[in-house]
Write a structure and sequence with these properties.
- The structure is a single chain.
- The protein is of the alpha+beta class and 542 residues long.
- 39% of the residues lie in helices and 19% in strands.
- It is built from 18 helices and 17 strands.
- The strands form 6 sheets. The chain has a 5-stranded antiparallel beta sheet, sandwiched between helices. Strands 15-16-14-17 form a 4-stranded antiparallel beta sheet, with helices on one face. Strands 3-4 form a two-stranded antiparallel sheet.
- A hairpin with a 4-residue loop joins strand 1 and strand 2.
- Helix 2 packs across helix 5 and helix 12 runs parallel beside helix 14.
């Protein structure tokens, strides 16, 4: 009899703990709802909460509030959180990137709380920022009390709101989205495995997003998958087990792929007016800082540290004496400048009048040059060079020549040039003949006389820079189609694929269109961004 009563009591407790069920399916491209059941019921989200903690962390990194390499000091509150946890110790320092990985992949409660404490200061202020962010994202029926999703009175959300958040993660932060599909990752102090790896391995096209479980919430999951040009996001609240939850989400995703239209324009979520970091200062009525424990009357003043505009600095007060000194200095500077300008722009003195003898010399030189041009004589003067040696300007600078010297110069100029030594050749290209000096050394003699050049070795240098990852855009029936696909993709996504090498690989079933020579981060980011454009792709590892 006692055993029967105990069994009834256990059954009652179990039935009382059964979490309500809720589900929703949307087309991620347009946001259209394809199926829903209790989608707006306010339920315990469990670790789906960490999706919002990570979203705010990504936004804080983007706005420069913090960086992935920032060292976070773990608080006592964060270190004391129950499992699932990374195993952080109070006072320990760890990079933000490892906390993000642990919260996203292992669903570590201590890591999520450490992120909230670092960005919010404490759990209360972090919860306030979470609620302001949720409102900005359109999560109308959610209220958050902590960073990790542990059961707490009033900490509630809905299947619709979590699906909205999952879509935001995909479109707003494609550079970080790939973390949700990692089966295993380095979390700094240890390697962690994905709590969602069973579903990721079992469902074709699945690439995220987040699991959640508490006794009050049941088994929750927000999942995303892509097949062809379709991407579906679905959320389940209140699963009875991991297997039950995964089966339910698979059914919902299948329903979504079956009902979603093929050609749907991608409508990204509108940019949200996200709140920045802020701080709360509790001040008592007598001007001293209170401690919030009720021992001093106080008021809360919120100081928003994210500036909307850059204020113009005010000018410093200047005395009358300083102003007078400045004016005198400016006037003196103006006078100096005026004097310098007067010297620079002063009219140039006219050139000196040429003497009759110089004028005769110029005329004589000009006549000789004209006669030489008509007769084909080589005067030794290069008409393309600087001929100022024969101009009046240069002659003026020298002592005035005498008429006898001028005549001798004219005879010297008009004298035929002395034939050069060695063999000559006469080229009769015109009725007149001109002597031309030739270099008669044979090519063989020159080759023997010239020093032998060092051999030049040409090698092909790899352009991958040690990058051995790539992105595959699919297999195509012909090489031409594959090459056109690569070119179109390069034009559409030049920012992430500019370092990649277009490569078409012939396979038994067709031609693979690949971008190679990328780092793993570049390949992951490129594929995420292409998927956001409804372009099917996957990364290729070494």
């Amino acid at each position: 009899m006692l055993a029967f009563a105990t069994l009834i009591a256990i059954s009652s407790v179990l039935s009382g703990q059964a979490a309500p069920f809720a589900a929703i399916v949307i087309d991620a491209r347009s946001g259209e709802t394809l199926y829903e059941q209790n989608a707006d019921a306010r339920l315990h989200p469990a670790s789906l909460t960490k999706m919002l903690t990570l979203y705010i962390a990504f936004d804080a990194i983007r706005r420069g509030e913090i960086s992935l390499d920032s060292m976070i000091t773990v608080s006592k509150s964060a270190a004391a959180k129950p499992p699932s946890k990374l195993g952080l110790r109070a006072g320990q320092k760890i990079a933000l990137r490892y906390l993000i990985r642990a919260a996203a992949v292992k669903s570590a409660n201590d890591a999520a709380s450490a992120i909230g404490d670092a960005l919010g200061g404490n759990e209360e202020r972090w919860a306030a920022r979470m609620n302001r962010t949720a409102k900005a994202l359109g999560m109308r029926n959610s209220t958050f009390k902590n960073a990790n999703g542990l059961t707490e009175a009033g900490h509630l959300s809905t299947a619709r709101d979590m699906t909205t958040l999952g879509r935001r993660l995909f479109y707003d932060f494609p550079e970080y989205y790939n973390i949700f599909s990692r089966r295993e990752t380095d979390a700094g102090i240890t390697k962690v495995r994905n709590t969602n790896r069973r579903f990721l391995d079992a469902y074709a096209g699945a690439d995220g997003i987040k699991t959640g479980y508490t006794s009050a919430a049941g088994f929750n999951l927000t999942a995303s998958a892509e097949r062809g040009n379709k991407r579906i996001i679905a959320t389940v609240f209140g699963g009875t087990s991991t297997a039950n939850r995964n089966a339910k989400i698979a059914e919902l995703l299948d329903l979504g792929f079956g009902n979603a239209r093929n050609n749907v324009a991608v409508r990204r979520p509108a940019p949200a007016d996200l709140p920045g970091a802020d701080a709360e200062l509790v001040a008592s009525s007598d001007g001293t800082q209170g401690n919030g424990n009720g021992r001093s009357a106080g008021k809360t003043i919120r100081l928003v540290t994210s500036m909307a505009t850059s204020p113009r600095p005010r000018s410093r007060p200047v005395s009358a004496e300083k102003v007078a000194e400045t004016e005198v200095a400016v006037l003196a500077m103006k006078e100096d400048i005026a004097g310098i300008l007067a010297e620079v722009i002063a009219p140039t003195a006219p050139p000196p009048e040429l003497s009759p003898a110089v004028k005769v010399a110029d005329a004589a030189v000009a006549a000789v040059m004209e006669t030489a041009a008509d007769t084909g004589l080589d005067t030794g003067l290069d008409t393309g060079a600087d001929t100022s040696v024969a101009t009046a300007a240069d002659i003026v600078a020298r002592p005035e020549p005498k008429p006898v010297e001028i005549a001798a110069t004219m005879r010297e100029i008009a004298k035929p040039p002395t034939p050069p030594e060695g063999p000559q050749v006469v080229i009769a290209d015109t009725p007149r003949k001109r002597p031309v000096k030739l270099l008669m050394a044979s090519a063989e003699t020159e080759r023997k006389a010239a020093p032998e050049a060092a051999p030049v070795v040409v090698t092909r240098v790899s352009t991958s820079g040690g990058r051995h990852w790539g992105v595959n855009l699919g297999r195509f029936a012909s090489r031409g189609v594959a090459e056109r696909t690569l070119m179109q993709t390069a034009l559409a996504e030049s920012a992430t694929l500019r370092d990649g090498l277009r490569k078409v690989v012939e396979r038994s079933g067709g031609y693979d269109a690949n971008y190679m020579g990328l780092s793993r981060e570049q390949a992951d980011l490129a594929c995420r961004r292409l998927q956001a454009r409804a372009v099917q792709c996957f990364t290729i590892g070494p």
